[in-house]
Amino acid sequence: MKVLHVTEALGGGVSTAILNYQALTPEMHHCVIARERVGQSTYSFPSELSVTLVPGSLAALLLSAIRMVRRGDFDILHLHSSLAGLARIIPGHRAGIVYTPHCYAFERTDVSPLARVLYKSVERGLLSIRRQCVVAVSGREAELTTELSNSSTSIVVGNVSPTDHGEYLRASSSRTAEVPAERSRVVMVGRIFPQKDPQLFADIAARLSSRFEFVWVGDGEAVLKESLVESGVRVTGWIPAEQVLDEVRASSLYLHTAAWEGAPISAAEAAAVGVSVISRDIKSMVSLGYPVAGNTAESLSMAVTHYFDCLDYRTTVQAKTQYFNRTVDVVSSRTALIDAYAFAIGASR
Q1: What is the pLDDT of residues 244-263, one digit of tens each?
Q2: Using 50, 70 and 90 to split pLDDT, how confident is the model at 49?
Q3: CATH code, 238
Q4: Is residue 13 over pLDDT 60?
Q5: Which residues face 26 on adjacent strands?
């Protein structure tokens, strides 16, 4: 089976998700076509996963993808995120369509209510154009798909941490409820832009940086980055995936501040290597089972402090984090992905 993955941008969670799908189904032939964004070129794909980069506009990317499908006899066209999802309107091929929103655009909180209504209308229309399979990254995303179209088919494929494919997970059992003797480190991973709400992370750091070290792994918008730095946060910039994992492993707590989210692989990576996760209280993170602690700098600052000061709370957070690990595993994710591809092929015939 040949699968063509289409994404508007490489780097970050989408590229890691594509790597996961390739690792889950190594017997399939996977290719990637993308429109690369400046500053997000930290992806590292294995040699057997061919990558085609398309310069220019989104339209150029989508048309190039359809030409590749027609020319390359691909069985599956796997579209990642809302912009690549627009390729569903282009006719003239018989590939099965799989769409992974990686968090629907109408979940955004940085746009107007009218814009969210428009995004939802577009998604509803695209779901009705042709039979397809939505690979949802969380139960929340599957529920939203059903709300958009109760005749749609969605299959949840958990965002397995890439470390689950290797040896890191076996090392996580050495983690205990003890607080490290050195200055405790709180980490967040992601692009510095409104979705991840770096300003909230900065506000928490400003309150607590005298006690704890705060690290943001990633880069992005200059104004928000400056706010992080002024609040005492060490910003690493874009670094290779191996170094990202090293930063996470060296931390005591992963604090996820995103304002809206699909199923962040960075949080799954933290859980996989035994680093506890506390998240902002958003529906997707609740559906995934992560410990949550409100939506304000005050409530999250209290949770961070409580985590390090209270053994019972720390033990509870660690137990919930590891429960997430047990509910998202390689075997079940592989089975679900194969089922999604099989459904999409059948729907296209």
Answers
A1: 999 999 999 999 999 999 89
A2: confident
A3: 3.40.50.2000
A4: yes
A5: none
Cβ-contact 156, 340 below 8 angstroms: no
Q: Are residues 323 and 333 in the same domain?
A: no
- How far is residue 248's CA from residue 313's CA, in Å, rounded to a whole number? 21
- What is the tens place of the pLDDT at every residue in 61-104? 999 998 898 887 799 999 999 999 999 998 878 899 999 999 99
CB-based burial of residue 275 (10 Å sphere; 0-12 exposed, 13-18 middle, 19+ buried)?
buried
CA distance 278 to 200: 14
Exposure string of 196-215, with b = 16+ CB inside 10 Å and e = fewer, is bbbbbbbbbbbbbeeebbbb
- Greatest Cα pair distance in the chain: 62
- Residues 211-241: pLDDT tens digits? 999 999 999 999 999 999 999 999 999 888 8
Give which of 289, 188, 194, 181 is closest to 248, Cα–Cα: 188
Indicate if 134 and 76 belong to the same structural domain: yes
pLDDT at residue 170 in the model: 37
Question: How many domains in the chain?
Answer: 2
Three-state DSSP at 62 gives helix
Query: 324 pLDDT band (50/70/90 cuts)?
Result: confident
Place of tokens 């929103």: 101
And the tokens for 8? 């508007």
54 touches 33 (CB < 8 A): yes
The pTM assigned to this predicted structure is 0.85
Structural domain range at position 317: 163-327
Q: Which of 184, 191, 196 is nearest to 253 (CA)?
A: 184
Are 199 and 152 in the same domain? no
- Give the DSSP H/E element, type plus range, for residue 253: strand 253-256
* E runs forming strands in 81-122: 96-100
Q: Which long-range contacts (CB under 8 A, 24 or more apart) does 300-304 make?
A: 300/200, 300/204, 300/255, 300/257, 301/204, 301/207, 301/208, 303/278, 304/186, 304/204, 304/208, 304/212, 304/253, 304/255, 304/278
Q: 103 exposed, middle or buried (CB, 10 Å; 0-12, 13-18, 19+)?
A: buried
pLDDT band for 56, please (50, 70, 90 cuts). confident
